[in-house]
Amino acid sequence: MKVLLIGDGARENALAEALGKSNRGYRVYAMSSYVNPGIKEVVDKTGGKYYIGNILSIENVRRVIKEVNPDFGVIGPEDPLFEGVANAFREEGIPVVGPNKEGAMIEKSKVWMRQLMWKYNIPGRLRFKAFNNLAEASKFILEFGGSIAIKPSEQVGGKGVKVVADLQAYLSEEKRNALSKGVNNIAGLVKDEVKLIIEEKVDGPEYTLHVLTDGYSYLPLPLAQDYKNAYEDGIGPETGGMGSISGPDHLLPFINEEEYEKSLEIVKLTAEAIRKETGMDYIGVLSGQMMLTGLWGPTIIEYYSRLGDPEASAIIPRIRSDFAEILELTATRHLSKAKLEVEEKPSIVRAVAPLGYPLDKKMASGHKISLDLPKMRELGCNVYFGSVALEGMSLVTKGSRAIEIVVIDDFINASNKLDQCFSLVSSDTKLIYRHDIGNTLEVQVEKAEIVRYTYKSREKNGMLGISADWSPNGGLW
After folding, report:
1. Burial classification of residue 430, based on how many CB atoms lie within 10 Å of its CB (0-12 exposed, 13-18 middle, 19 or more buried)
2. Which spans of this chain does the record mark as coiled coil (predicted)?
3. What's this model's pTM, rounded to 2 decimal places?
4. Which residues pair with 405 in a beta bridge?
5. pLDDT at residue 136 in the model
6. Does the pLDDT at position 142 exceed 90?
7. Which domains are seen in the chain, by residue range?
8. Residue 212 contacts by C-beta under 8 Å, 6 or more apart in sequence?
């Protein structure tokens, strides 16, 4: 069987590895914007073919689909989904893992997502107000007295989110003046008519639940947690993710079984709402970026219409079942036949990025990076190649996270192995790498217990989701 994989990052490298090692003997074809060495290794090993081209061009992708004539496709990144690449596969009669562009709106537009959750009364929803008039947004920020989060209205790669917590009254005016002046910067990231969205601020440990669905059945994957900030201890600019953890088993140390089931129910209700709203079944991965809050318990911060990155690097290697077959069953709408077995031990992923990431792509691009891959594998580390291209015999950075190093072991052993493997990576520029990922779990467990007490008390008194500062129809007072 032939499978066509679209995408060029570490997530796609992890997907390619799963496809390449399947007992079903898939021949892996791939289309990327540059040659990812990890994906190329799988393509060469399975006898497929590597295509280089614009993965956002429907015309280019359709040409490759017609040439390969795959049995099914897998789309890794979100941008091709936004452009309608999944639609192109289905128009050519090829089943694919990935929603149509209509369903991918759940990730592309935060306004559409929030409106959907309120329209269909989905638990875990936050109150919000959308603005296309920046003067009105600035005025609202100055006048509103509660804690808020300001975000671009559409997906911009995790950039532009600003938060103000109204905890110290004597700082409120200064904080709000600064925040109101920053709305132009946030809005400048957005192409849509609606520029930004203001939400009620919530706090708690974050986690992601990825759910595979064929429009009929739902298969939840193990939980993962992403580490967004560039530098140690969660400081610095937000990135696409500097690392991730998953496990033990299908949970995380700070999320219990009941919360996992509630999170799954929220995602399922959202998939059903998308079908009602668009008239199309959602086929692919629907991922809830969640936060455990005192307001709701499991709460939706945003949705992904695909696997997260680097969360995929933490989850996929832990799946003992034939994950490639599960992907095929998703695409061909036979997911009810799938069985998922998961490694009990947890995993840690740590990304390595060139200096300049995430604020200066030009500064982070064009650097040579080298690693002792055999030695890293001998130490128990797996490596997925991300924003790094194979140019001749050299690995050259493309401006984002270059590699993701993965270890499956208890958190202490995994952390030690990761540091050893990082010492085997070198470059002609300084490299960014967070040693603390997977090492702060006690703090998160304690935080979750505090939040859990709060939302359980609210639940007991029938107060889940009720906030005094916000109106019940999705807008602010």
Report:
1. exposed
2. none
3. 0.91
4. 350, 383
5. 81
6. no
7. 2-98 (3.40.50.20), 127-200 (3.30.1490.20), 206-432 (3.30.470.20)
8. 97, 218, 219, 220, 221, 284, 285, 326, 327, 330, 335, 338
